[in-house]
Specification:
By secondary structure, this protein is α/β, with parallel strands linked by helices. The chain is about 40% helix and about 15% strand. It has an 8-stranded parallel barrel with strand order 1-2-3-4-5-6-7-8, surrounded by 7 helices. Helix 2 links the parallel strand 2 and strand 3. Helix 5 crosses helix 7. The protein is globular and about 45 Å long.
């Protein structure tokens, strides 16, 4: 039996203006009020929507997350956002090391680990993303890459909860998903690495992400060591996101 509650987290990426973002959040709050979710639920809107969405989520079981944070607590970092600013306005989570940031902003494992440590220091739960490219998978290097990212991107064991998200880069936004056996193999290897590295390794949720949809959510969630889902495209509609949340029942 898993030692953690499963988490369904919606990653809105760079989508949503004030009107649609607040409408989406209000729609989710309505669903959560009608039927209490059987898992933890979070939404991660873009920075501009965090504060208005925090107000809408207040009093509901849906938690708020950001999509990134800076390594420093404050200071001269134009355009960046500190983890303490995120917890101050009601965030519980911060995604760090998403493959889009690793690719677009050249983020290294060491930077991701520092961001995760900054998130923890501010009382946030970092959702630390790892995953191989198609080229790496085809070269048979999936476990080597993913386990290397796990070793390099995790903050030191001291204090605070973390979440891992395994997201094969080639499955993100493509409609392609690994077979359930492939998902199981990577999640088992991550679990083994976590339990080897950390005292709390058995209780860290390992999410799967990459084209998670209402149609495949139940199957993905049935895989051993899949502790929830990080959902991109399908988190932008109330119906599809809530169908995925309901797959935790
Ligand atoms: P997707 O994105 O569900 O649209 O594939 C997942 C993610 O990048 O977190």
């Amino acid at each position: 039996m898993a030692e953690y509650r499963r988490l369904i987290a919606g990653n809105w990426k760079m989508n949503g203006l004030l009107a649609d973002g607040t409408e989406l959040a209000a729609g989710l709050v309505e669903r959560a009020a009608a039927v209490k979710p059987a898992c933890d639920v979070a939404v991660c809107p873009p920075f501009t929507l965090l504060h208005p969405v925090a107000g809408i989520l207040r009093g509901s079981p849906i938690r708020l997350g950001a999509q990134d944070c800076h390594t420093a607590a404050s200071g001269a970092h134009t355009g960046d956002v500190a983890a303490s600013m995120l917890s101050d306005i009601g965030c519980s989570y911060a995604i760090v090391g998403h493959s889009e940031r690793r690719a677009d902003h050249n983020e290294s494992d060491a930077l991701v680990a520092a961001k995760a440590a900054a998130a923890l220091a501010a009382g946030l739960v970092p959702i630390i993303c790892v995953g191989e490219t198609l080229e790496e998978r085809e070269a048979g290097k999936t476990l080597e890459i993913v386990l290397g990212q796990i070793t390099g991107s995790l903050p030191d064991a001291a204090g605070g909860s973390i979440v891992i998200a395994y997201e094969p880069v080639w499955a993100i936004g493509t409609g392609r998903v690994p077979t359930l056996d492939d998902v199981a193999a990577v999640h088992a290897a991550i679990r083994q690495a976590l339990t080897g590295q950390r005292g709390d390794g058995a209780s860290i949720p390992i999410l799967y992400g990459g084209s998670a949809k209402p149609e495949n959510a139940r199957d993905l969630l049935s895989v051993q060591d899949v502790g929830g889902l990080l959902v991109g495209g399908a988190s932008l509609q109330v119906d599809s996101f809530w169908q995925i949340v309901s797959a935790c029942d």
